[in-house]
Amino acid sequence: MSLPNHISLHELTQKIQQSLQSNMSNSYWITAEISEFSVNSKGHCYLELIEKPETSEHIIAKQRAIIWAQKYGMISAYFKSVTGENMQIGLSILCCVKVDFHEIYGLSLTIIDIEPVYTIGEDERQRIQIVARLESEGILTMNQEVPLAEVVQKIAVISSPHAAGYQDFIKQLQANEYGITFYTALFPASMQGLEVESSIIAALDTIFESEEIFDAVVIIRGGGSKSDLRWFDSYRLAAHIAQFPLPIITGIGHHKDVSIADMVAHISLKTPTAVADFFIQLGVAVLQRVSELEYKIQERVRALFAEYNEKHVDLYRTIYSEYQQKTLGIHHQIIQNTQRLLSQTQQIMAAEHQKNAQYVYKIRMGVQQIFQNHASQMQQLNKTCTFMSKSYITKEISKLELYATKLELHNPIHVLEQGYSYTKTAHGKPVRSALELTSGQKITTVFKDGNVASIVE
Question: Do residues 189 and 196 make contact, with C-beta atoms less than 8 angstroms apart?
Fold first, then answer.
């Protein structure tokens, strides 16, 4: 039996190689997904490229590829500079390849160039360039450094007047359950299409002319497609927002997407309603702090009144104690003087009686006369002492009652009970003149039975 004509495996691989060299000598731009990726110690990059249909995970093509070390360093650096990330498994790439065949290693693709714009898309490439430019100019985070007021009530709104998002924003602010008042001014602008950039910049320029009126600026829009966000990826618009002197809060994004306008704004929120809630919560936080401060002031005032009353009660007790001590001292002194006079009289009478025994009658008569004289003097002296004591005591009691009356008149509680009141500012500072007040200022008037809050007109 004769054998069919045949060739060796080596001869076949040579024919394949020659055929490829003859028919596929040019390079080709192809799209593929990286399924395997590694770099060896010599710097050569080995990949496995695959292709899957958009509607399925089934692989319809697969091929080995290599980027030689002399090309890989330059290609990988350029790829990262454009896309912001390294080549890795799962990325889709557009690459220029040459088809190679080796008798031992078989078919493979040699990658000689990669276009990273395909991986990120042209819009994303422009976004990366704009962000890099803003960062290099030092303005990327300027608006985020502008201080935001503790309470934001005067708001400049840039939006379409007919947008549902604008209506939701206004409704959310006005219907807040805390009674916080907000003042808004609409500066109409287009929120989609070619006029987005120019109309928003024009609105910002108008607001800038009266920036001192407002606390903050909001840029809001209602729902829309993801593609509408590209109008907010403008360099000129981002530069105006970043350098604006008032804090700008945006509510233009989707839940997963962030525009460049969002990146440079002071704060970026997802929806107009979220922006309104943000302002409401700022006001709530301040109301809580004011309530806590008011409570502390009331407690301090109560403590001061208690301390004041306690000091005056102690003073009254001290004065009354001194009065009692002085009265007792005077009474004791009068008794001692009376007893001493009586004792001296008795001594004189006894001495005269002993010395003039033979003149008993005369002495008796004399003693009686003397006794009568002394008795009259004693009565007069006793009357005088009693009168002086009562007069002194009455005078001292009058002084003490006068002191007590003065103290009672200065009691703040009696001042309020007489129909008087006093007024303080929201910070607790007493108001002593109408010139200290301004229109719109909150004040509190204190009466004997409660407080009344009011606003100056």
Answer: yes
Separation CA 248–CA 265 (nearest Å): 5
**Which of helix, strand or coil describes residue 426?**
coil
Contact between 167 and 157 (Cβ < 8 Å): no
Query: What is the pLDDT at residue 72?
Result: 96
How many Å apart are CA 238 and CA 236, to the nearest integer?
Answer: 5
- Beta-carbon contacts of residue 145 (< 8 Å; ≥ 6 apart): none
First to last CA, the chain: 122
Residue with tokens 């695959």: 50
Order the strands of the 450-455 sheet from edge to edge.
422-425, 442-447, 450-455
Residue 41 parent element (H or E): none
- Among 21, 68, 26, which residue's Cα sits nearest to residue 45? 68
The answer to whether residues 226 and 257 touch, using CB atoms and an 8 Å cutoff, is yes
21 pLDDT exceeds 90?
A: no
**What residues have CB less than 8 Å from 47, skipping those under 6 apart?**
34, 36, 37, 64, 65, 66, 67, 111
Q: Does the reported pTM lie above 0.90?
A: no
C-alpha pair distances (Å), 60 with each of 33, 109, 328: 12, 17, 122
Give the phi and the psi of residue 269 in degrees, each rounded to 5: -120, 165
Question: pLDDT digit string (tens) for 42-99?
Answer: 999 999 999 988 777 799 999 999 999 999 999 999 998 888 778 998 888 999 999 9
d(Cα 122, Cα 33) in Å, to the nearest integer? Answer: 18
Question: What is the spatial distance between Cα 86 and Cα 75, in angstroms, rounded to a whole number?
Answer: 10
Amino acid occupying residue 128: I
pLDDT given for residue 57 in this prediction: 78
More confident residue, 75 or 163: 75
* Tokens describing residue 267: 């704060």
Q: Name the packing angle between helices 235-242 and 196-208 (round to 10°).
A: 20
pLDDT band of 30, cuts 50, 70, 90: very high
The two beta strands, 28-39 and 442-447, are unpaired
Cα–Cα dist 171/271, whole Å: 14
Question: What tokens were used for 392?
Answer: 């002194």
Tokens of 271: 């929806």
pLDDT of residue 122: 63
Instruction: Tell me the per-residue pLDDT of 192-220, one tens digit each, with 9 for 90 and over.
Output: 888 999 999 999 999 999 999 999 999 99
Inter-residue contact 356 to 363 (CB < 8 Å): yes
Percentage of the residues of the chain whose pLDDT score is greater than 90: 42
Q: Shortest CA distance to 274 belongs to which of 169, 144, 371, 196?
A: 169
CA-CA-CA-CA torsion sign (81, 86, 90, 93): positive
